[in-house]
Write a structure and sequence with these properties.
This protein has 523 residues and is mainly alpha-helical. Helix content is 67%, strand content 2%. It is built from 18 helices and four strands. The strands form two sheets. It has a two-stranded parallel ribbon. Strands 3-4 form a two-stranded antiparallel sheet.
Length: 523
């Protein structure tokens, strides 16, 4: 079962941590609603974005938003209404919307099928152009997700450097406790000279506590020094080299974190850069919302770059003062003016001066450095979502026909056993409504797909007679066209204020063309 929510990442984490929905949790697939996805950081989008998760097709998860938009015109009226009147109006409005949407289900399914087909054709063309096997692209996509969702590097030196820093800090603790002990001893001697019994007793108690704390700190210091080993003690004895090592590891951690944030920033901006010319209507609102979310994260990247450059200056000063190992070179700083360009040859990708010479240089992965691979990954995911969407729509078409056939058979049986004229009258009205629904759905649900498996119920003659009666009873041509003519155009006019989210690419959003005749909006 797919569950889409604005902050579903927090919901999933809370459910996993505290056992909420424990009975249903294994059956739930969590995803973020499309319109709210760009308020989340990039690693969160990779995990919870419905365009990157299996099973969601092209679903956007904005059903509640559309319901709110549908009844929002009642706000002013219901503010001055009583409680019972308010409930009645809301019930009536929602019931009316439910009945109206029932007639549009087949049309909606048809439009979604056309949308999925168009996306599939476009994506398959891109897959052919990239000349990469789908299996290889899928491995690259998994490598990208694994790389961009792993914990970012912390600004703390690992392993032996952490142990050295801990020993140095413990030495400071011992030094402070020694000073405190000496101060208490001096005060105790002074109080004894003044024959101040109260102060003497109090200071004697403090001295006892200070000696105990000092002994405990010295024991901890010996334990930490013993855990260093030979290499650690040698580096510890060379304090200037230890300081350089701390700065170098700190700079490397800062650079790795900066690199991850810049990747996420680049991927989020890619859609805006590619679709900047196709801004119209509510699509512009979605792009503006995305751009605002990206801008809120820029100051953090700029601050991190400034901290990295300051650390590079400190490393250069250590090398210049000859307080660093031989052959040590200062790492190059990152120019803030070209920080967000993220070119493959930029300094941000190279760890010069931050790693030991024997460490091998790592190549830029294809999913990051090869634009054709990135396009292939996007196209592959579009095809995957199109396959899922087609399966979902096929199940819905089948469900519609099964539901209608059952409704018709039950209604026919009820008419045969009607025990009064009043009941028969209302049942015939219901039958006439189902005939209207059948004539509407049959235009969009292909008979050949389930002709031999699931019959509609009404015969072709009944449907033809109903359509003729409807045309004859209409007050004019406009009434007949309102029932039978161009429902797709009417649907577009009704939904012109809603967002056509289209397909969000693997690395960013891909908007539906502005001249598209079909809306990707669920009723």
């Amino acid at each position: 079962v797919g569950l889409l929510y604005d902050i579903v990442c927090q919901l999933a984490r809370s459910a996993l941590k505290w056992g909420f929905l424990e009975r249903y949790f294994p059956r739930l697939a969590f995803a973020v609603a499309v319109f709210h996805a760009f308020g989340h950081v990039w690693p969160c989008q990779l995990v919870f974005h419905p365009r990157y998760r299996e099973g969601f097709g092209f679903t956007n998860g904005e059903g509640c938003e559309r319901l709110w938009h549908l009844i929002s015109h009642l706000i002013a009226h219901l503010r001055i209404s009583g409680s019972h009147h308010r409930l009645y109006v809301l019930d009536a409005q929602i019931k009316h919307a439910d009945e109206a949407s029932l007639f549009k289900l087949a049309e909606w399914n048809h439009r979604r099928s056309l949308h999925s087909k168009a996306k599939r054709v476009e994506a398959e063309d891109e897959l052919e152009d990239c000349d990469y096997a789908v299996s290889w692209l899928r491995k690259q996509w998994k490598a990208q997700v694994a790389s961009q969702t792993k914990p970012v590097a912390r600004k703390s030196p690992p392993c032996i450097t952490v142990a050295i820093a801990s020993v140095l800090a413990q030495r400071q603790v011992v030094s402070v406790l020694k000073e405190k002990k000496a101060e208490i001893e001096a005060n105790l001697l002074d109080a004894a000279d003044r024959s101040n019994t109260d102060d003497t007793l109090l200071l004697a108690s403090d001295l006892k506590k200070a000696r105990a704390a000092l002994a405990k700190a010295q024991t901890e210091l010996k334990r930490k020094e013993g855990a260093l080993g030979v290499d650690g003690r040698n580096k510890l004895n060379n304090k200037t080299q230890a300081k350089f090592l701390e700065l170098r590891v700190s700079a490397l951690a800062l650079k790795k974190r900066l690199r991850d944030l810049l990747r996420a920033h680049k991927f989020e901006r890619e859609a805006l850069e590619r679709n900047s010319r196709r801004q119209q209507g509510s699509d512009r609102n979605l792009r503006d919302h995305t751009l605002d979310a990206i801008k809120r994260r820029r100051p953090k990247i700029v601050k991190l770059n400034r901290q990295y450059n300051e650390t590079c200056d400190k490393i250069a000063a250590e090398i210049k003062s000859k307080r660093a190992p031989r052959r040590a070179i200062p790492p190059p700083k990152i120019d803030p003016k070209i920080l967000f360009q993220l070119d493959i040859a930029d300094t941000v990708w190279q760890d010069i001066g931050l790693e030991d010479p024997e460490e091998e240089e790592k190549e830029v992965p294809p999913w990051l450095g090869d634009e054709s691979v990135r396009k292939g990954i996007r196209a592959m995911l579009v095809v995957d979502r199109a396959n899922e969407e087609d399966r979902i729509l096929e199940k819905e078409r089948r469900s519609l026909r099964i539901w209608f056939a059952e409704e018709w058979s039950i209604l026919e049986l009820a008419i045969q056993h009607a025990d009064s004229q009043a009941a028969a009258y209302f049942l015939h009205r219901r039958r006439r409504r189902l005939l209207a629904l059948c004539t509407t759905w049959r235009k969009y649900l292909p008979d050949a797909e389930y002709a031999n498996e699931i019959a509609w119920g009404p015969s072709d003659g009944e449907v033809a007679r109903y359509m003729a009666q409807r045309a004859t009873a209409a007050r004019g041509r406009d009434d007949f066209e309102a029932f039978m003519g161009e429902p797709e155009k009417e649907a577009e006019e009704e939904e012109e204020d809603e967002v056509d989210f289209g397909w969000l690419d693997t690395l960013n959003t891909e908007e539906v063309d502005s001249d598209s005749d079909h809306s990707d909006v669920e009723d």
